[in-house]
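User: Some background: our group keeps a shared notebook of sequences we're curious about, and every so often someone picks one and asks for a predicted structure to add to the entry. Today it's my turn. The entry only has the sequence so far, pasted here. Could you supply the structure so I can complete it?
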Amino acid sequence: MARREKKTISRNRNARREYQIEDTYEAGIELTGTEVRSLRERSCQIKDSFCVVRRGEVFLVGCHIHPYSHGNVWNVDPDRRRRLLLHRRQIDGIDRRIREKGYALVPLEMYFDEHNRVKLCVGVGRGKKLYDKRADLAKRQQNRDIERALKERSR
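Assistant: Of course. Here's the predicted structure to add to the notebook entry:
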C-alpha cells in the first residue's frame, strides 16, 4: 500500500521572509467538524496569524477559516482562537524560547497529513532586520545568476 503525501491547505510565504526560523514543530489543531469540511472545500488564510502561549497551552490567533457552505447553525466564528496540540515538553521549550527578546512563534504551513488529519507546522524564529532581508535577496539573486550562467554554458 502506497503512503499518501501531505496535501497543503495554506502556506505562510511571508514568514520565512520576515523571520529567521530556527526550530519547527508539527502541531495538531483542535477544530470542529464544519471547519474540517470547510478546509477540504477551500483553503484558509494564515498569512496574518500568530501563536501565543497562555497558561501552558498554545493558541493560533488570527487564522481565518471560511464558514462551511452547508454548515448553517453549526458554523463557528471563522476568526476564533484555536488550540494547538503539542507535547508538554515542546510547549515548555517554546515558551522559554519566545520569552527571549525578538523571538516569535509563527505558523508556516497548514496541511492534511497522510492520515487525513489537519496539522500545522509552526516555527520559532527571530525577526529579521532590513539589512538581513536585503542580504537574503542578494544571495538569492546571485544563485539565480549562477544557475543561469551554468545552464547557458552547458548548451
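Suggested note for the entry: The helical segments are 13-18, 33-41, 88-98, 130-153. The chain has one domain: 7-128.
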